[in-house]
TrEMBL record:
Keywords recorded for this protein, A-Z: Calcium, Glycoprotein, Membrane, Repeat, Signal, Transmembrane, Transmembrane helix
Main location group: membrane
Amino-acid biosynthesis is among the record's keywords: no
UniProt key word Repeat: yes
Taxonomic placement: Eukaryota, Metazoa, Ecdysozoa, Nematoda, Chromadorea
GO annotation terms (biological process): homophilic cell adhesion via plasma membrane adhesion molecules
Organism: Ascaris suum (Pig roundworm)
Record-given protein name: Cadherin-23
Length: 1276
């Protein structure tokens, strides 16, 4: 019997186990503290909160919310907190709120909430508040040369240090005699810099922010000078005159200065400095005239002459002014003779026929003549004799004398004159002697300088009494010296002596003047009387005058006040109602004029605002300012007092000290209700929480002393309650059945928080009426909604904060007037509770529609609500209408480069292509979440990184980065930062890089070098162990040093590269090129790799290095280092569901387990994997990382296709399941995903062929311009 054939059918079924949301998310920290600037705008990153969820399906799918006051100003996305202002302008104000205390809650897809984490956001200050000026009074009055009442200026700035420091300046006509003295950063006191004339003035006070960001503050103060007390002075500080040189004739007046404050009889006028020598001054009137004008004229130019008024008795300079004279045209007559006197001695010699002396230089062709009438000859007996006038002649610039015609003549003199200008003359004196040296010596003796009176040859000591502190420029003595033979003034005058450096002498005038004022108290006693020598001429024919100066003490030092203890006069405090005698501050009084036990009698004066509350108590040299018996120190009347203490000695010298006194508040004022009684009416059917009235009590004290809390007493049944802070009185229980004609009385108590606490009470009368009394029988009770109208659309801007009223719904009960609208109750519901719910609420009594959370166009652009109005007395009477709301988009999002792992540093490379511009292989891309036209993005390179020299540029609209000129690059690496802005800025902003700001990104530019470094010095050295495998891929462009690790005890050691072998990769052929890509430093063992290796075929290089002991030349070790030259096309990539920093901690263990799994299958036991460094992976999923790797069979590098076949067959056996401990997600090609499968690595051969084609079309992105938006990867 034939058996029936069996038929079976099978089918593969894939069962996928999905994770459920059964674990609540958890914050990694219980609390977070962040800081953000108050200038931050929407999108500015505040901080990052770390949260974990054990459920795989919830990773990256968590939602966050912030709870607490001010939470609407911030937004959370993926744990990142950012600023969310209602508009595009900054909304954080440190002066209003310096810190936000919030709670953060994370919710997963299953609706499980995390435990809340506390969040503190501190607002950092910026300079956004300008200064404001506050004055102690609005006017200044000056009498008898002092302020009638002290005047102070306080500059307030709401910012904190260092942004609250401002500059203050003064202007107006009163600023010439009033200055502002800073006594602390924000407080200035007015001082008199000079004595003004009686009259009315104005003082302009301007406070400016030094940065110029904020608007200056200005105040104008009226100044009234009631009388004049002035010192002697010139009416003008400077007089000016311009004159042509032709009008400079002797006697012509030039200027008449005006002098005030002293009688003409007591002073004389002098030219103090810079007298050109051709001016003269009337010592009684001060008029300045033209004096003896030089024969050669006056040079054009500007002359500044100092004119002084000097006391005739003491010689003290009282005042000084400047006369500025400008001489124009300067028609100057040139003199022929270089000097006015020519003298010479000739020896009488019978053999001489002629003698001559030079008058003019050889090249001077000026025409001169001998004035024959001026010839005068003297014989040996000193008698005048007549001579032949022809004995004197002039030729070739020389005066010639015929000696034979002058036999009996001892001396002869004559005058010579210029032919064109007879007034231009010179005197010639000739001596004829048998001993000319003796004649010359006698002439020099006769020319010995002499000083004018009171100096005498036999009495050359001149006594001078000089008062201390005599000002600079004061003329102590005028003692000019002259040549008695010619009458000329001696200009070579010197002053010597120990005290000479304090004086100066004018050689032109002989005036000895004070150079540095002398202080009697600071000079040693033995030097208060001293001698100085005034010397004219040269040794041995000089003249000496001894000046004996006695320094006189004057009462010129004001008394000094020093604070005792640690009191700060600018920050004194005193409690209000302090007892009389309470010490405010103490000062020590001293006077330098009264030393060595001598004392002066001082006069004390207290002035200023509130000075009547204090008095001065003097004990020896100590002064105390104490509270007076008549003091009225009340913090509520004046919180700050400005007082001034002036001390004056018997000489009229004074000193003053200003004090700022703050009156400390005490709890001396009880709260006061305003008004004292309150009346209110309530309907018995009003709901719980209805506000009846608001009570208010004010307390004049400050801080806790004036902080009031409210409470209710006589509140039987507790039907009412009061908010302890606001004073709002509400219903606490239903009032049904309490209606009556007689009102209820509640007693409210206001209590301050002072110690001891003070309180006050007020009465609240509440009348409760029946609800039925508000309706009339027979009226229509239907509800009619008239706001919003039918088809009405409410347009609102996004970012409107929570609790903001945006609209009012209005309805009426038919037949009733407006007073019965209180019987209408409103409610609101969302048409689609998922999308429209949670955005708006409504006040059931008023119909006001308000926001429940901040509106966000990006979350919800349109919302439809149903509003309902109901008759509170007849609930069956109801009406409803749709309220459509459209949310308008605003420019409230900043561009973002997306979710970028901060641990990943982007690296781009550029190659040298010759001269000119080289375009970088990089394009930046950022997105703006706003809709057009608010989604513009502009790119800038931040100069605060390393691009101030402009080597790199970026196209602000495309984000393409270029290098201006490759030849200008000096370094192998450049670290740059980019900033994406929503605004088209004129220049890159000067801001620092912030790696937490999504609008900023940092990257490195590597410059390829095509030449091997010729020297090993200065290059980086990286230490590797022996037998290290180095992967040299296409992305490595700089030489890599390798230090051989040997025993230091064997040093010194020489290293030598013996040989290099090469094994080509599976996809390469054997190379016949020289393997000269490597060099070894004989001393250090550093191995250098030529970057040209990147152009060699793929494969493994084995470097055999001998290490020999230097002294014995004995081989110590044979060191081997393998260098894998791998192209991107041979690399693969592992993708992990783990952050890069966590993966790096477990990478070594992962490598060990992977190689162990590979060794299980004998067919692929020779397969090994070389893994690179972990990096963050750009993916739609967050927190992923990747590692690049290549595979080898033995020492042969496998191609991508061979590696995929080997690894996909290996990654499925059971032992490899342990790799999923590391959240291994998938394997993909380097630069493009291979598969999207989550749980398998199986690939068919046809899939491999198709994928390989696709890969060859995509891996070329290295030579193109990858965008970060795609899959540009950092160096592996």
């Amino acid at each position: 019997m034939r058996s029936r054939s069996s038929i079976s059918i099978s089918k593969n079924v894939m069962i996928i186990k999905e994770d459920a949301s059964d674990n609540a998310p958890r914050f990694l920290s219980d609390g977070y503290d962040f800081h953000v600037s108050e200038s931050s705008i929407t999108g500015q990153k505040v901080g990052q909160m770390e949260v974990e969820d054990a459920d795989e399906r919830d990773r990256g799918q968590l939602t966050f919310r912030l709870i607490g006051p001010g939470s609407e100003l911030f937004a959370v996305s993926g744990g990142t907190i950012s600023v969310a202002c209602p508009t595009a302008l900054p909304c954080l104000d440190r002066e209003e709120t310096d810190a936000y205390h919030l709670l953060a809650v994370a919710t997963d897809r299953g609706g499980l909430n995390s435990a809340p984490a506390s969040l503190r956001i501190f607002i950092a200050d910026r300079n956004d508040n300008g200064p404001t000026i506050h004055l102690t009074r609005n006017e200044i009055r000056i009498s008898d040369g002092k302020f009638v009442r002290p005047f102070a200026v306080k500059v307030r700035d709401a910012d904190i240090s260092p942004f609250n420091v401002n500059d203050i300046s003064s202007g107006g006509n009163a600023s010439t005699f009033i200055s502002l003295e800073r006594i602390r950063n924000d407080l200035y006191v007015a001082r008199l810099s000079s004595l003004p004339i009686a009259g009315n003035y104005q003082l302009e006070i301007i406070a400016r922010d030094p940065t110029g960001i904020n608007i200056p503050s200005m105040a104008i103060v009226d100044v009234y000078v009631l009388n004049t007390i002035t010192k002697a002075h010139f009416k003008r500080a400077r007089y000016e005159r311009t004159i042509n040189s032709e009008k400079l004739h002797k006697g012509n007046p030039l200027v008449q200065p005006e002098f005030e404050g002293a009688s003409v009889e007591s002073i004389r006028f002098i030219t103090l400095r810079n007298d050109p020598g051709w001016l003269m001054i009337d010592e009684y009137s001060g008029n300045l005239f033209v004096g003896d004008v030089p024969s050669d004229g006056v040079t054009s130019g500007k002359y500044d002459i100092s004119i002084a008024a000097v006391n005739r008795t003491s010689g003290r300079v009282l005042a000084e002014t400047i006369f500025s004279l400008t001489v124009l045209s300067g028609s100057r007559m040139i003199t022929v003779f270089q000097q006015k006197l020519f003298t010479k001695v000739f020896r009488k010699d019978p053999a001489l026929m002629h003698v001559s002396m030079s008058i003019l230089s050889p090249d001077d062709k000026s025409s001169v003549m001998i004035v024959r009438e001026s010839i005068l000859a003297i014989d040996e007996k000193l008698h005048k004799v007549s001579i032949d006038k022809s004995a004197i002649s002039f030729a070739s610039g020389n005066a010639i004398l015929e000696v034979k015609k002058l036999q009996n003549v001892r001396s002869i003199e004559f005058r010579m004159a210029a032919t064109e200008n007879p007034n231009d003359t010179a005197l010639v004196v000739v001596y004829l002697s048998s001993d000319p040296e003796e004649v010359a010596a006698r002439n020099r003796e006769l020319s010995r300088p002499k000083f004018i009176h009171p100096w005498r040859t036999d009495l050359n000591i001149i006594t001078i009494k000089l008062a201390e502190e005599t000002p600079e420029g004061y003329t102590v003595l005028s003692l000019p010296a002259y040549n008695p033979l010619t009458g000329e003034r001696i200009k070579d005058v010197q002053l010597s002596g120990d005290m000479a450096p304090f004086f100066t002498v004018d050689g032109e005038t002989g005036d000895v003047k004070v150079l540095h004022p002398l202080d009697y108290e600071t000079i040693e006693p033995q030097k208060r009387k001293f001698d100085m020598l005034l010397t004219a001429g040269e040794e041995p024919y000089e003249a000496v005058a001894r000046l004996r100066v006695e320094l006189l003490d004057m009462d010129d030092n004001p008394p000094k006040m020093e604070t005792l203890g640690i009191a700060d006069l600018n920050n004194l405090t005193v409690a209000e109602n302090s007892r009389p005698g309470t010490v405010l501050f103490e000062l020590h009084i001293s006077d330098a004029d009264y030393l060595n036990g001598k004392r002066d009698v001082f006069k004390y004066t207290l002035s200023g605002e509130g000075s009547a509350n204090f008095q001065v108590k003097e004990v020896n040299d100590t002064v105390a300012v104490i509270v007076s018996p008549a003091a009225d120190l009340d913090h509520e009347k004046a919180k700050t007092l400005f007082i001034s203490l002036k001390v004056e000695d018997s000489g009229g010298n004074s000193d003053s000290a200003a004090a700022v006194v703050t009156i400390i508040d005490i709890n001396d004022n009880a709260p006061i209700f305003v008004p004292r009684q309150y009346k209110s009416e309530a309907v018995e059917n009003w709901p719980i929480g209805t506000v009846l009235t608001m009570v208010y009590a004010e307390d004049r004290d400050d801080e806790d002393n004036g902080r009031v809390e409210y409470s209710l007493t006589a509140n039987d049944g507790h039907y009412f309650e009061v908010d302890k802070d606001s004073g709002l009185v509400r219903t606490a229980r239903p009032l049904i059945g309490l209606a009556r004609a007689q009102p209820y009385e509640l007693i409210v108590t206001a209590t301050d928080k002072g110690v001891p606490a003070l309180s006050a009470t007020a009465i609240i009368s509440v009348r409760i009426v029946e609800s039925t009394s508000l309706s009339r029988p027979g009226d229509d009770k239907e509800i009619h909604i008239f706001e919003p109208p039918v088809d009405f659309i409410l347009n609102l801007d996004e970012n409107i904060p929570a609790n903001q009223r945006v609209y009012t719904v209005q309805a009426r009960i038919g037949g009733f007037n407006d007073q019965f609208e209180r019987e209408v109750k409103y409610s609101i519901t969302a048409v689609d509770n998922v999308t429209d719910g949670g955005w708006f609420g409504i006040d059931s009594s008023s119909g006001d529609v308000f926001t429940l959370q901040q509106l966000d166009y990006e979350q919800q652009s349109a919302i439809t609500l149903r509003v309902t109005a109901q008759n509170a007395l007849l609930p069956e009477k109801i009406a409803s209408r749709l309220l459509r709301i459209r949310i308008n988009d605003l420019d409230d999002n900043q561009p973002s480069f997306g979710e970028i792992d901060g641990s990943v540093h982007r690296v781009f490379s550029i190659s040298e292509t010759g001269e000119g511009t080289t375009e970088m292989m990089a394009t930046l891309h950022a997105d703006d979440a706003d809709d057009p036209p608010y989604d513009s993005v502009y790119y800038y390179l931040l100069p605060t990184c390393s691009n101030r020299d402009g080597k790199f540029t970026i196209d602000k609209e495309t984000g393409v980065i270029t290098v201006t000129d490759y030849t200008l690059l000096q370094n192998d690496e450049y670290h740059l930062c980019a900033f994406a802005s929503a605004y088209d800025l004129p220049a890159p902003p000067e801001i620092a890089f912030d790696n937490k700001n999504d609008s900023m990104i940092a990257f490195t530019v590597e410059a390829k070098s095509l030449k091997m470094a010729e020297t090993l010095k200065g290059l980086p050295k990286i230490k590797f162990n022996n037998n290290t495998i180095i992967t040299f891929g296409e992305e490595i462009y700089t030489p890599i040093p390798i230090r051989i690790d040997v025993n230091d005890e064997l040093s010194p050691i020489n290293y030598h590269l013996n040989s290099v072998t090469f094994i080509p990769s599976e996809s390469s052929s054997a190379s016949t090129e020289k393997l000269d890509y490597f060099a070894v430093d004989p001393s250090s063992g550093d191995v250098r790799i030529d970057p040209a290796l990147a152009d060699h075929a793929e494969g493994v290089f084995s470097l055999h290095i001998d290490a020999m002991q230097k002294s014995t030349r004995t081989s110590i070790a044979d060191l081997i280092t393998s260098v894998h030259n791998v192209k991107s096309s041979s690399m693969l990539k592992f993708i992990f569901d783990q952050e890069a920093n966590l993966l790096s901690l477990n990478l070594d263990d992962f490598k060990t387990r992977l190689n162990s799994a590979l060794n299980i299958d004998s067919s692929i036991a020779q397969i090994s994997v070389v893994i690179g460094m972990p990096h963050s992976h750009s993916d739609s999923f967050k927190n992923r990382s990747s590692v690049c790797f290549h595979a080898l069979r033995g020492d042969v590098i496998l191609s991508q296709e061979s590696a995929i076949l080997a690894l996909s067959a290996t990654l499925n056996p059971l032992p490899l399941s342990s790799l999923f401990t590391y959240l291994l997600r998938r394997m993909e090609l380097n630069g493009r995903r291979k598969r999207q499968s989550k749980a398998t690595f199986n690939l068919k051969k046809k899939d491999i062929r198709e994928l390989t084609k696709m890969v060859w079309n995509t891996v070329k992105f290295r030579s193109g311009k990858p965008e970060w938006r795609s899959s540009s990867h950092p160096r592996q």
